[in-house]
Predict the 3D structure of the following.
Amino acid sequence: MPKDLKRKLKTYQTSLGFYDQAVAAPSMKAALEAWGASSNLFHQGAAKETDDPDIVAATMASPGVVLRRPVGSGGPFTESAALPTDLADDEAKRKPKPNSKSKPESKSESKQRPAKGVTKQSRKIDDQDARKAAAAFEKEERRRDAERRKEEAARAKERARRDKEVAAAQAALDKARREHDVKAEAIEAERAALDERAEAEQGRWDKQRKKLEEALRRART
């Protein structure tokens, strides 16, 4: 492989839900990201690198794109795979029966197993195909990045809209509170003035009352 080739793609395979899934990626980490896996399926033994020529050819034709087939079906991998028609029957077919050591392998098993005459060298992708596959994978990654940026921009726009509405509501509340405080202070000042007037009037009345009561007392004697 030339040194100027950025990344050499490999084909990785796993089973998730109702589907077997395969993808051409430069690393196990990239494959896990393409599958949307939340844990390391390779460490768990649920994913592996495969050199099956049919699977490799399918994934290298669409690098970075997750291909699927009904789980355990042994059929070709495609971008849009149908659900298994009978999961119970498929599960029964996949389970080995007692004393079945000499059972001939199925057509799907023989199809997936490389022919004895096929060497590792014959399964390798030539430099030109590898370059094309790597370029296609980079394109797919750029598309995903663009979608992520678009979604992030939409979320940022929504946050800005909410922040603007919150700021406007807060400003209206602050303005109303200030107006209330001004009016309350004015009312309190008026109340204090009234209390002062009332107190002065009470003092004046007390003096006048005493003076008039004294005059009345003298007139009666």
Notes: Strands lie at 10-16, 19-25, 47-49, 67-70. The chain has a mean pLDDT of 80.
